[in-house]
Give the backbone structure.
Amino acid sequence: QSVTQLGSHVSVSEGALVLLRCNYSSSVPPYLFWYVQYPNQGLQLLLKYTTGATLVKGINGFEAEFKKSETSFHLTKPSAHMSDAAEYFCAVMVSGNTPLVFGKGTRLSVIA
Amino acid sequence: GAGVSQSPSNKVTEKGKDVELRCDPISGHTALYWYRQSLGQGLEFLIYFQGNSAPDKSGLPSDRFSAERTGGSVSTLTIQRTQQEDSAVYLCASSIEPNQPQHFGDGTRLSIL
């Protein structure tokens, strides 16, 4: 399995829509995750998709939609805050006995 | 504390020395993972423990790297004869079960001079 995050750096204005793109490849239905990393900190789970509802809501107003036909799991937030500036990682796991496979990350900048 | 704890937070050492990195997972978490984060390489999986056993060591980059976990709790990642390319942030994560979300520590920043 693999994960591709389009755009290593995304810049948005405060109050604007945030859209961070993630596409995955997997031979079996995957578990999908978004993590956020603030400077000098570890990764914090934003949201996860395992089964069931394809629109997943997470912390800090973020949500993501699993689209099997597009093999995508894009992360969105309607209105960016300055505090959202961080690095965001999309990850895939195909089963409980396999590790997370991460994308390269997208750095989000929020402009006042 | 309630989270994953890693020590030391920073480590600077000379090339050729051995280093030990420690991870205290969240109490009750059976699965423990080590990852390495470096510029240009992103986040790389190193090793996974279920209890004290390591079913997947596929990510260890060389035989200079080893890890153990004792008592189903604390884990130590050891790097022998360190090289400059070992410089990175080493992240530990734990989960209550293998298919549950992983919770990460703040990492150990390792610098090899």
Observations:
- The mean pLDDT of chain A is 92.
- Chain A is about 0% helix and 55% strand.
